[in-house]
């Protein structure tokens, strides 16, 4: 790998990252969390707000991202609001990097915020059983085929086809919680065991409660800039080396193989465009709404062969100081999950590459050096979409 490998015509760097207040936030609106995260990311970058000429946001407002940009006092000349579920932010990051590389924008701010937990607690919204009953979904909704049921069906297929066990799936939750234990910003930090996971209330067979992501409040922001702005940054840049995007299906009947996610396509694209191999990656931040998502994404990104995910995760490989640290902040299973979590993956990857994660949870290479390469891969819907981004430092 060469530092800042060309991405299109201009190199693209991550200039600033930040989280808003996360976890239990009962006294803020989603707009306020957007603003808080954006201000913190700008401060992290050392740039002034006037440098921003591109903006990407999704999930809030009638005319996203226009409403959020207005709230933040921005008048961008490049915008995007592509919304594909949990993969939204890796897809938006790919679009933003392409825009910066092509000269369509010099500094693009990606920002997200949600009070999903607080809204339910306050009765401002209820849990949704489905995403709607029109179009192709009308053929599944009458049968109670909820989002979690679709993931559960896919997990059962993997278990049937490859012998993956409940204990192996539970190991994903156990190791992710162990990573969260060292993260003061994580919502849940107490250790759990495989027996704790298996003994919990069943949500959708085979998933018990601890197989499923938590519900939290929170927001975050990422600022991407062109290479000619790097000298103005407060911190060394983290380079966007390559990305890939893919979509698969909406209805389960159109999913060719329940054991293969669209990350098999987006990951292959991202690694090829970055000019790196999976075995060169030092850490992975993966969307983990359910334990099975982590397992199958590891397979599809090429960290292990198809069908070997159960054995791979069952040996402690996901821990911060292990062979392939995964979801080093505690992921959506333990740290935070305020809806479309994909932007949080990029924030954590950048912090780790910078060496800013803190003494108790900073990832190091075998020789003691800081990590050089990270991958963030988001999954949307019920494995309907995927976006993968490879990041690297000097």
TrEMBL record:
This is Thiolase C-terminal domain-containing protein. Residues 244-393 form the Thiolase C-terminal domain. SUPFAM superfamilies: Thiolase-like. Pfam families: Thiolase_C_1 (PF22691). It comes from the Bacteria. InterPro entries: Thiolase, Thiolase-like, Thiolase_C_2.
